[in-house]
């Protein structure tokens, strides 16, 4: 069964200027339900994540400042919006949804979080609308509970997964792979185990050629027993922040290749949706929904 973490809090209202991107968190499951691809049985609502699990990834002082809403104005500006209790609750539910998704991925091969992909959050900072790094938290959960011994993070969002890279810079059990726009946010890049920076205007053919040359080799070399996939659609040519030139069909081909590699190698994969900032919300929602459509076709 295709299992998808979703909670209404994912679309929690934000200050003016931030509400538009949040619409997708309600529209994606709504579209999938409308198509009949899923029913409400496919959706699950995560609980709040416990502090002990958070502290395996994030520094205690940073987490307590986040929890207690005492981050400085400068730190909040780095995150990109003012801190609130509801926003922190949103983050910890997203992280729990990714952990729960891992358990479903072991059972069904693949599982999704409608939100997540908060890859700019490092051990002791939040940045770029990310406060807690959901996939890093989940990877550490799997390792701590001995549910996995070798993890591969495949980050194909247009922005480098700088927080994820920093968190795992000295962790040999987690290999971080980020293919992203070279001239995009963040200005200061961290060092993933493998970074592939792409020039502005990279098209779908070039993107897919690089991915198809890289991912099978990584899987063969690293032999992961679990994969985290960050499936951002801010690589679209229509994206206001992306600087790359992929079409929705290119994104769909990207998803197909990633899932085919996971499935062929019998590696469970958890998918967090990441970014998407096209001017027309329909472009964002349709591109994200294609990720679910391809998974449903290949796995179910």
From TrEMBL:
Residue ranges annotated for the Histone deacetylase domain, each copy included: 24-288
Keywords linked to the UniProt accession: Hydrolase
Domain of life: Bacteria
Pfam families attached to this UniProt entry: Hist_deacetyl
GO biological-process terms attached to the record: epigenetic regulation of gene expression
MF annotations from Gene Ontology: histone deacetylase activity; hydrolase activity
Alphabetical list of CDD domains matching this protein: HDAC_classIV
Matching InterPro entries: HDAC_classIV, HDACs, His_deacetylse_dom, His_deacetylse_dom_sf, Ureohydrolase_dom_sf
Family under the similarity heading: Belongs to the histone deacetylase family.
Protein's name in the database: Histone deacetylase
Lineage summary: Bacteria, Pseudomonadati, Bacteroidota, Sphingobacteriia, Sphingobacteriales
């Amino acid at each position: 069964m295709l299992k998808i973490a979703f909670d209404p809090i994912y679309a929690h209202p934000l200050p003016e200027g931030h509400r538009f991107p949040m619409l997708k968190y309600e529209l994606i499951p709504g579209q999938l339900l409308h198509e009949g691809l899923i029913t409400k049985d496919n959706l699950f609502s995560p609980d709040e994540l416990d502090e002990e699990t958070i502290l395996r990834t994030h520094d205690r002082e940073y987490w307590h400042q986040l929890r207690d809403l005492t981050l400085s104005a400068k730190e909040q500006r780095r995150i990109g919006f003012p801190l609130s209790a509801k926003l922190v609750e949103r983050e910890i539910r997203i992280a729990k949804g990714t952990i729960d998704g891992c358990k479903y991925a072991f059972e069904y091969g693949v599982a999704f979080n409608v939100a997540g992909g908060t890859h700019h959050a490092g051990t002791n900072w939040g940045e770029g609308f990310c406060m807690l790094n959901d996939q890093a938290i989940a990877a550490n959960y799997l390792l701590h509970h001995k549910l996995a011994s070798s993890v591969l993070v495949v980050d194909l969002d247009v922005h480098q997964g700088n927080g994820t890279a920093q968190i795992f810079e000295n962790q040999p059990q987690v290999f971080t792979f980020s293919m992203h726009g070279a001239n995009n946010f963040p200005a200061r890049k961290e060092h993933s185990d493998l970074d592939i920076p792409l020039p502005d205007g990279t098209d779908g053919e070039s993107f897919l050629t690089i991915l198809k040359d890289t991912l099978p080799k990584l899987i063969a070399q690293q032999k992961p027993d679990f994969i985290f996939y960050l499936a951002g659609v801010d690589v679209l040519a229509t994206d206001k922040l992306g600087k790359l030139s992929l079409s929705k069909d290119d994104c769909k081909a990207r998803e197909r290749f990633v899932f085919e590699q996971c499935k062929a190698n019998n590696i469970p994969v958890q998918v967090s949706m990441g970014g998407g900032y096209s001017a027309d919300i329909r472009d964002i929602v349709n591109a994200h929904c294609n990720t679910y459509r391809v998974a449903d076709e290949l796995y179910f």
